[in-house]
Amino acid sequence: QVRLTESGGGLVQAGGSLRLSCRTSGRNIDELHMAWFRQRLGKEREFVARFSRIHRNIEYADAVKGRFTISRDDPRDTLYLDMNALRPDDTAAYYCAAMDYAATSAAAYRQVDEWTYWGQGTQVTVSS
Fold first, then answer.
1. What pLDDT digit, counting tens, does each position of 100-117 carry?
2. Is the distance from CB of 127 to CB of 13 less than 8 angstroms?
3. 37-49: burial string, b at 16+ Cβ within 10 Å, e else
4. What sign has the CA pseudo-torsion 93, 49, 30, 102?
């Protein structure tokens, strides 16, 4: 059973930076496709970024492209999300997700239902 544990959320002023971490247990992180999603208050959970299992392909949502960076540390079994130039509309609960098989299409990786394992979430609040 895969377990995901996020950390690193908090309160930051607009323009600031935060680093989120997601540690995996139960499986090595290089055996998993990994992703970050977020859920803003009253909104549906949405895709933020993903890191593929073997080819290390990376994809970002348009809203975060150029500001956020996803990376993976295999020896530490940890996925990171470095968030820069944060804006108030980045305020959300951020969730780490994982799956151990390839999605049916590139677009499917952006769908919440495609992902098997989820962390408990970590809150990011950006003040204006």
1. 888 888 899 999 999 999
2. yes
3. bbeeeeeebebbb
4. positive
